[in-house]
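Follow-up to my earlier ticket, as requested here are the two runs.
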Amino acid sequence: MYSLNEIEEKIQLANELNLSGAALLEDRERAVKVCNGIGAEWMPDSARKLISSLNPTLVLAADIHDIRYEIGGTTEERKAADNEMLENGYKLADARYSWYNPLRYYVKWKMRKFYKILRAFGFLAWNYRECANG
């Protein structure tokens, strides 16, 4: 969970970088409750914290994605949420690292790995959220 100050910082950065879904963070109460870094809600906090600390550039993309998954919807909406996270991750990598910095491409590679994991196994978190809400 994040503090309100952390959410405010995330809103500002998401808007500055024109991230898709940035407006979702403006529901601060939801953002504080739902956003949890990189990883599914059912994962242990320690695992999510570790993954997030190893991939700090991508956390904001995951936060927006968390809200999308909390909202839920159709299979097509899940795919759109995953695609949005991929694109936001790429934007974050581009914003953080210049074109000649190899870390830019490493972060994009990591984002692509997370995207593949989401496409393969994200339905578990999507369905988990539906079960928890239903």
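Run two:
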Amino acid sequence: MTITLPLQPQEEAKLIALAQAKGLSTDALVREALDRILAEAPDAGSTKEPTRSMRGILAKYGQAPSAEEIDQSRAEMLANFARD
């Protein structure tokens, strides 16, 4: 693949000077930089959706009822329940 990179004249001059200082061609210098970038990038084939915790899945339902609210609801439900 060939990539054309538009550079300002001063950017091009800096790139050439840096390559000469390192004893490389400009292509080799750019290739070094590209190799470092690609080494840090995640693999495209291994991108999977992150696992979500149960707390994250249930977050859309809001905060859980407190123990007092559960006791109150239980008492209201059982208030009219027939007893032996």
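The only thing I checked on run two: The radius of gyration is 32 Å. Let me know what else you need.
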